[in-house]
Amino acid sequence: MAPSTATERSATKTGTSNRVVKKATQKAPVKKAPVRKAPAKKTPTKKAAAKKAPAKKPAKKALTARTADKHILYQMSVQAPDTDSKTFGRWFKKYTGRELRAWREDFCGTSVLSCHHVKNHKDNTAVGVDFHRPTLDWGIKHNVNELLSDEQKKRLTLIESDVLDVTAPKVDCVLALNFSYQVFKTRETLGKYFKQVYKSLKPGGVFYLDALGGPDVMQQKTDRTRHKGFTYHWEQRSFDPISHRIVCAIHFSFPDGTMKKNAFVYDWRMWTLPELRELFVAAGFDDVHVMWEGTDQDTMSGNGIFRRKEVGDMDEAWISMVVGRKK
Ligand SMILES: C[S@@+](CC[C@H](N)C(=O)[O-])C[C@H]1O[C@@H](n2cnc3c(N)ncnc32)[C@H](O)[C@@H]1O
What is the pLDDT of residue 173? Predict the structure, then answer.
């Protein structure tokens, strides 16, 4: 599994070239962006409007299960890559005093987050690791080739591999997001993964891993979120309190009544924060801590602000970030 740069890959392609919203005491894995700001809307002046009469756009066809692309719907429902990429940069700077330049994104999927990281600064580099070739290829076509210039593509490396097998190149930060590490169901395997992450970091490097929990997440239920043109469904299909095996699925439904069922299905072990902290320590991480999301007192859901805490809240559903540093 030789690392291939996105540039190399795109050259081949063209011939020339996961969801939980925190609920303080009251909803399901729709990933809450660490900090998400609605872009300010500019109101066009009358003069500008008169000058630039918008060309009539052809009416957009309504999405259906047959025409919609599940990766686009996933990115729209679950990810906020522009904001999140900047948030990790800020967190890293606040924590280490250094700029976050070289990062690795494990379980990178369509690599949209890493594309944004390389766009954020001319010296930023990103490595994305995922073992699913079709998803990586989709990301190269729709994200890398659409979002990045040729120069930016050179700063993104995509590695098709199991994350358990990657320890190079050494980076300042490793991110494992949207709970994807929960595919590892034994202490031995998750512990091995954390040790590989530790080896992959430069001294002073930081590992960020998100976690979810709360009684609401253990309920059999489906939460729905409406988006423009489709509805996102997060189904918590089953939870076994003995093994902590949790099976969840994402479906999408459309105005014509059609549905993309089981667009993504996750068979995970839901790890608890104390287990994760212990495994971080066992892998050698220093200053292992949890960043807990605060509560918006009006909505009683997450406010997008994560702070280091030693004691969490008895929220019905929560997401948090486990952080460890390499000495
Ligand atoms: C839920 S998606 C995460 C996508 C994206 N990182 C996000 O935050 O939304 C999980 C991804 O992890 C990949 N994956 C699962 N197990 C893996 C493993 N052991 N090694 C590498 N990739 C893995 C899958 O192919 C899939 O693309």
Answer: 98
